[in-house]
């Protein structure tokens, strides 16, 4: 037979209410009483039925975090930051990866709804306004990640990727590059479109500089390597002398291929900058310049927004936090021509 709170209370010679208070807010129980309850729990092997408690409360202490590309180290770092911040609020994190699949995204959102999570942090593929409305009807707040939403519906935390794209391309121009290539895709993905928009604006501000768009289907090291191989097949005068890769994984593949082949010197003949400034950027074969996203600030802001939304679901306008990226210069762009 399962051991219950009343069994613990009887052994500790306290009321069931005192045991419940110890389990939920131990600081409100006298130290001597806490010790008796703790000893009774250990002696009886009592395990708290948290699922039943959450069912009675109608909400869990778990946050649902749904990323659209967990293979990207940026999202791994973000998940770590979210977990750290959530812990300070007494919350745990349930992580899902939609892998840019809308059907899979829907299944995870269904799971979060069924679990009656405390709140949802989601980096959506497209519009999920109808899902947000469903969550709100159940008193579950939603915060959009890396995408601005409808201020009347939900708060969001995002990065100004237009500014980041401008910063990356303008940096290449400042290094004397005039034939710039943007490597990224697919078109229609908000992060891709915004970074490309910023790069185009930077090029437009500098007459004589051109921008070539090299579309990719994937945003990983292998795809970057493939692009690098294709660029090496071009005559020297048709190659870009500056490359803006939309993320660091693409940039790594480009760097690895170009440096290994040895026919084009980086950064003398071809400067390369990535985006995200993931942990391994500084350890690349040629340390990679990158646009840094403020991951820690991003994660903290998202969790704090979610917790504050818990008490303000009916406000007329929800906060839309936009964080600014920063340029990190390393050897892959460090020499001017």
From TrEMBL:
The lineage of its organism: Bacteria, Bacillati, Actinomycetota, Actinomycetes, Micrococcales. PANTHER family: HTH-TYPE TRANSCRIPTIONAL REGULATOR GALS (PTHR30146:SF109), LACI-RELATED TRANSCRIPTIONAL REPRESSOR (PTHR30146). Keywords: DNA-binding, Transcription, Transcription regulation. CDD domains: HTH_LacI. It holds the Pfam family Peripla_BP_3. SUPFAM superfamilies: lambda repressor-like DNA-binding domains, Periplasmic binding protein-like I. The keyword Transcription regulation applies. Signal peptide: none annotated. GO terms for molecular function: DNA-binding transcription factor activity; transcription cis-regulatory region binding. The keyword DNA-binding applies. This is LacI family DNA-binding transcriptional regulator. PROSITE patterns: HTH_LACI_1 (PS00356), HTH_LACI_2 (PS50932). Residues 3-57 form the HTH lacI-type domain.
